[in-house]
Write a structure and sequence with these properties.
Helix content is 25%, strand content 29%. By secondary structure, the chain is an alpha/beta fold. The strands form three sheets. The protein has a six-stranded mixed β-sheet. The protein is globular and about 45 Å long. The chain starts with a strand and ends in a 9-residue tail after the last helix.
């Protein structure tokens, strides 16, 4: 089993690579392919990758990542259509939209796989806690820290319970198409949400695996959910 991590040298802004470490420990091990900005992605010419991951990056790194991925736009689209598993966290989701709009009105053209666009407001960082629902009955908790919100036409990954969706006007958070999962939630979303980790393991064909350190992970997850759902608990900070 192989998992490809795209551009770990720049896409690990909030410790995002712990998502892959936790998934690996939960799976009992798999091969991790780390693709650098100067290398051809493994997925470009191989079909045996089980999951493709990309995490949060700086604004300047977004432009480097776009340059690296644009030659493979059609391949990425075909993989998404075929049901390949993608996990995309933080502002990495913006790479797959149409463009990123700067405060001066200029635009950075993105891959254009989804009919979304991001709007940057560099003097208005949005920091918050987040609670949502995945597939109706799974609670999702997490954190957000971003200078952007995204707008457009999309199928949401999570349904927001507390916090903002992809933008303040929608309860839909993240982007989902087939097994493409993208969310603005930062940091180790899989560590924070062991049920979602188990969901991905099942999707990868590992039916009998559980989340690593399951008892401790579930205790922390349930405590955090209870805390985040308290009516007096502030969300933004």
């Amino acid at each position: 089993m192989k998992v490809e991590v795209l551009f770990p040298e720049v896409c690990n802004l909030y410790g995002d690579l712990m998502n892959i470490e936790y998934l690996k420990r939960s799976a009992g091990g798999f091969d991790v392919i780390e693709t650098s900005l100067k290398s051809e992605p493994y997925f470009a010419s191989n079909d045996d990758v089980s999951l493709i991951y990309m995490g949060t990056m700086t604004e300047s790194a977004q432009e480097l990542v776009l340059k690296a991925l644009k030659p493979y736009k059609e391949r990425i689209e075909s993989l998404i259509d075929a049901g390949k598993i993608f996990l995309i966290t933080g502002n990495a989701l913006e790479i797959f939209g149409e463009y990123i709009e700067n405060e001066d009105g200029s635009r950075i053209e993105c891959l254009g796989i989804f009919k979304t666009h991001a709007v940057r407001k560099m003097l208005e960082r949005y920091n918050s806690l987040y609670v949502g629902k995945f597939a109706e009955d799974m609670d999702i908790v997490g954190f957000k820290s971003q200078f952007t919100h995204s707008y457009g036409e999309f199928e949401g990954l999570f349904k927001t319970v507390r916090g903002d969706g992809l933008n303040p006007e929608t309860k839909a958070e993240g982007i989902k198409k087939n097994n493409f999962f993208a969310t603005y939630i930062i940091g180790p979303i899989l560590v924070l949400n062991p049920p979602f980790t188990v969901f991905l393991l099942r999707l990868m064909g590992l039916e009998n695996k559980t989340a690593a350190y399951e008892e401790a992970a579930m205790d922390v997850y349930e405590h955090r959910l209870e805390e985040f759902m308290q009516p007096t608990r502030g969300l933004t900070y």
